[in-house]
Amino acid sequence: MASITLAELAEKLGAELHGDGDVIIRSISGMDKASEGQITFLSSSKYRKHLAQCQASAVMVKEADLAYCNGNVLVIKDPYLGYALTAQLLDSTPRCATDIAPSAYVSATATLGEGVSIGHNAVIEDGVELGDHVQIGAGCFVGKNTKLGANTRLWANVSVYHNVQLGESCLVQSSTVIGSDGFGYANDNGQWVKIPQVGRVVIGDRVEIGACTTIDRGALDDTVIADGVIIDNLCQIAHNVEIGENTAIAGATVIAGSTQIGKHCIIGGACVINGHIEITDGVTITGMGMVMRPITEPGMYSSGIPLQANRDWRKTTARVMKIEDLHKRLKAVEKQLEDSK
After folding, report:
1. For residues 6 and 20, is the Cβ–Cβ distance under 8 A?
2. Distances in Å between the alpha carbon of 312 and those of 212, 289, 307, 309, 320?
3. 133 is a catalytic site residue
4. Exactly one of 239, 264, 276, 327 is catalytic; which is it?
5. Tens digit of pLDDT for each residue in 197-236?
6. CATH code for 4-89?
7. What is the CB neighbour count within 10 angstroms for residue 226?
8. Rounded to whole angstroms, how far apart are CA atoms 61 and 44?
9. What is the 8-class DSSP label of residue 340?
10. Cα–Cα distance for residue pair 93/222, rounded to 1 Å
11. Cβ density class 121-157: b for 16+ within 10 Å, e for less
12. Which residues pair with 254 in a beta bridge?
């Protein structure tokens, strides 16, 4: 188990230490469950009342909360960020793979950098390039001529099709598919004619992709995911989508083809985004948002009907169904008022 002294942790976080720097920190816990050997954090002043009963060996707080603490404290500008960085330092997650398993298939034409690890029953096809310290989990498939940058990790059963490019220090969770065919068909008198998808998926550096997400390859041009993007579980990214730097996309979101999403956007869970539209930089879309038109101004956008008791929802729905009739009646009243002037 990883451990660190409180003094060492303060130095790495750039935090101000108050108390015993020799205290050993072995893990992180929530404020209400923390015990000896653990550190916790206070990111919102509304939880100050719990500080007095906290049993953690240390707590990370903002300067304004220092006076409410009794034990060992690290004062830091952003305790939640401190929590994230501390979690990285104490991370005990195992490697995706260790060494190259005897059951793995690695093509003789594949190129492997230093320290590459490949798990049991993984398949690395012709022309693949794996950078230094890449980790390929058990049961993964990496298709022909695909390139994975240094320190990129694929957890078990990830499928990466042919001619895909992932940058450095990417993380892909289990059962995700990258480079599958986009949904491209032409209709010939009622029969669907498949359009081969000949573009690629190009993913930048430090991109993280959740489990069971699908990113389709481009139809002609590429599907592009820029540096620093994070994508949650169970998302669908269709062909030729482009996502800008450091955008975050929460679970179960569906993005239709050829949509362009800007930098530093936040897209809530279960959103549906129409195809062939553009969303500018700095947009936040709250959960279950339905985006049918371009968004040209930064800001927060919402749609959908919040949960109601069923009897209230039925009334709301009944009234919504009458909107067109109400609109006509309103226009008639407005005309009458105008004519009476």
Report:
1. yes
2. 36, 21, 10, 5, 12
3. no
4. 239
5. 999 999 999 999 999 999 999 999 999 999 999 999 999 9
6. 3.40.1390.10
7. 20
8. 9
9. T
10. 33
11. ebbbbebbbbbebbbbbbbbbbbbbbbbbbbbbbbbb
12. 236, 272
CATH class of 105-301: mainly beta
Contact 292, 310 (CB under 8 A): no
Strands (E), 29-176: 38-41, 58-61, 72-75, 105-106, 111-112, 117-118, 123-124, 129-130, 135-136, 141-142, 147-148, 153-154, 159-160, 165-166, 171-172
pLDDT at 325 over 60: yes
**51: which DSSP letter?**
G
Tokens of 30: 């929530």
> What is the domain partition of the chain in residue ranges?
4-89, 105-301, 310-339
Residue written as token pair 């034409």: 109
Best CA proximity match to 23, nearest among 2, 9, 40, 34: 9
12 and 85 Cβ atoms separated by less than 8 Å = yes
- Specify the pLDDT at position 1: 54
Give the integer Cα–Cα distance in Å for 58 and 331: 66
